[in-house]
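PT: before anyone asks, these are the final sequences, not the draft ones from last week. 989 residues across everything. Please model them as a single complex and drop the result in this thread when it's through.
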Amino acid sequence: MISSFHRLRSLCAIALLFISALTFACSGQRGGEGEGTGGAVRLQGAGATFPNPLYQKWLSEYGKLNSNVRIDYQSVGSGAGIRQIQEQTVDFGASDAPVKDDDLAKARGGQLLHIPTVLGAVVLTYNLKDVQQPLRFSPDVIADIFLGKIKTWDDARIKADNPGVNLPAAPITVVHRTDGSGTTAVFTDYLSKVSPEWGEKIKSGVSVNWPTGVGAKGNEGVSGQVSQTPNTIGYVELAYAVQTKMPVALIKNKSGNFVAPSLEAVTAAAAESIAATPEDMRVSVTDAAGANAYPIASYTYVLVYKDQKDAAKGKALVDFLWWGIHDGQSFTKDPQYPYAALPTEIVSRAERQLNSITSGGRSVRGAQ
Amino acid sequence: MQNLQPNIPTPATTHGASARAWNWRRTFAPTGNTGDTVFRLALFGAAFFLMLVVLVMIGAMAVNSLPSLRQFGFGFLTSRVWSPISGDFGALPFIYGTIVSSLLALLISVPLSLGIAIFLVEQAPRGVARPVGFLVELLAAIPSVVYGLWGIFVLAPFLREWIEPFLARWFGWLPLFRGNVTGIGLFTGGIILAIMITPIITAVVRDVLAAVPVSQREAALALGATKWETTRVVLNNGAPGIVGAIILGLGRAIGETMAVTMVIGNRAQISASLFEPAYTIASVLANEFTEATGELYLSALIELGLILFLVTFTVNGAARLLVWSVAHRAGGGAVGRA
Amino acid sequence: MTSDSQIKSAANHRRTASSVMTTLTAICAFFAVTILALIIGYIALRGLSAISFQFLTDTPKPVGEGGGIGNAILGSLVLLLLASVIGLPFGIAVGVYLAEFGDGRFASVVRFVTDTLTGVPSIVIGVFVYTIIVLPMRQFSAFAGGIALAIVMIPIVARTTEEMIRLVPTSLREGALALGAPQWRVTTGVVLPAAASGIATGAMLAVARVSGETAPLLFTAFGSRFFNVYLDQPIASLTVQIYNYAISPYDEWHAMAWAATLVLMTLILAINITVRFFTRKKI
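LR: through. Structure below.
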């Protein structure tokens, strides 16, 4: 018994030696603040889950072009991303919905800028095994389904939008999100615009009181639940429906056309709203006018401080974002990344935002 | 059975006087040996530091939940409404969900764990006990995210197709088993928790039973006891340790987040039926904390965290009280500690 | 007066009860192993295809380009080591305190609070460490992650240590005391070694528990695409990587999440076996 203890002691001693060696290795270099580790600049970003796959691609591709810049992005959710950039524990945040005024006021580092990066779509997906063609929905029908007023699939109003389709007489089970999310914010923003009742009673936000339905966690939870349970309907980001090969509904837009959530339709929605887009880029593009606009689209933003404390980091960050809104847009053509590219006018506006970023009083981008 | 708990004879107890004024030397250097003093100070320091950390944690949470406390007061505990948009918050559905799911988990897991532990210690041949023991401990290493995913893809459909309809048919007259069978709800949450806490309880109980001296077993057998009766003697002997194991398991059940939130449905409601979705405090914290904006919302969530502390206090206290009263009635000193 | 037949039937009764219970416990064990097989089987089914040498040594890449969890494995090891170095001695110290001086009022309070701490959701501990370490440093770090995991470990280790020490027979202590050993020597030299295997169980349970935690790490250690061992920088970990892959829309990443789980469980099994080897009773 005693010898086993001595063996344990030697094991602990080895572990302790290892950890001390590690600590000495660490304390020797204060890497990561722009100097050290061979001159590499390290940046961290956190926020929205929705653009994560594309951002990972951007980071990897940009890293190949600039090996002395190491950027990490962790998807923790839009709200957490906003919180982190407010507290300056990360170098940039990411959010699907624009940040509200009172949250902007809480940002410790001064003025926060919104840089739009890509556009995404929230789609309606459903599980009806006997229905082959994509279903069509009018905005008021969608709102009433999610309000619980339309209860069965063979309701007259759904039939009116889908003549000739064999809809079952089954009850509709709504699947919504239980965790706070930018996807919910975009969807409820749309519902508030098209349904006065929704706008009054439920309103919009990252987390709302759903009048009916079952809850699932995350986009993958909703798509999993809908794909597994018959006669359900739910809302997810486009990528999830595409990857899981689930049916996607066409939605009637403001101009009266039934539009499928293609990437062109999403860019069209943004293009139609340019006139309404303020200089700080905070805009909602849901329920956009325009013949081909998809009604439930949204920008996703990167949040950076106008005044960068560290000049080297600021330059690396601004160069990366500049690359992202130009070269980075080409990756949206890859079918694995179902995000829509920014309209050209928006790219110019984003350029203006990036050009205004300063560090120590001097513009970071300088003469470029 | 006699109380075999070690009783370190410190001069304070041997001299019997507990009503004397508190004295530095008596507490920290009763034996006059410097090694003893250093030892005592180190241990006491560790315990004190832990208390400090917990105090700071609770203090920080209390300070941050002041806005919510001021707004809702005591009504927070009894209100069933949880509406971030309108700024109205209440804790009752979450308290209900936490307590019911944890109790259900204990109900399933404790007999199961005891059975496994007894099997491993008393009955299994050496070659079987070791690997099975390892495997059971391996269950404890599965990340909760994975438990959640397994719950959604394997457990929930299984319960929805086979178990819940069966229960609804034969026991549907009980309000516990009525309602829609979707596979997502309190019942699934409780079962997943039971699976997750079984390795903890089993591992600790196994070690407790293994540490009971062989002489106890031999004495029982010598008196003509059957295998099961001998095992009961051993269980009695290890009772305090078993209680400790159960409390550890309970702690895990109450605080478990990821796995539960994926299968419990996350609906803030109180329903008699186990098949209905529910919401636990840990789940709502995990779901809504990162996205919560607005001072009242955040402080309501933090107040929920504080309430969780309270719930754990209460359930632990009730468990200890229950054990103490049972032991007292059984006339034994087997469970002699508060 | 009990007749012969009454005694016989009572004896039969007891014997049947014993056989029934023996069978029941065997069924329990069988049931547990079945559940484990179901879970591990499912994980292996979904993830085995993604395991390769590249997967185990490479860093994460965008979807469709392969990549691996090499940096996550290293990160998890660093975090586990850090958490153990802080949490194990601390937890054992508290456990020894509760066992040796556990009859006083303060000790009862400590025991109660430790029990309660086991029930705190790890996300609360993560947010707490975020507030006291990450915010002042303005930086996510492996150090903060280690502290958060250590706080989760301490109550588990403390309570199991206490229980195991209390099970050491009094005769052992009395013998050592009779030989003139000071109290502290009795505890460290005789009691602790005797309880070593039980303490190791507690330590292994705690390590297994924290190795599967995600939420606290998201707030403290953050995550990274690179190999990193510096303690004042964010660090990757298996659980965070599993989480990232699992919530994505891609089947390829889902398979990698399951594969990473297999790797994690193998890691814990290896640590478990190693520690058991070092603490086995010689006789």
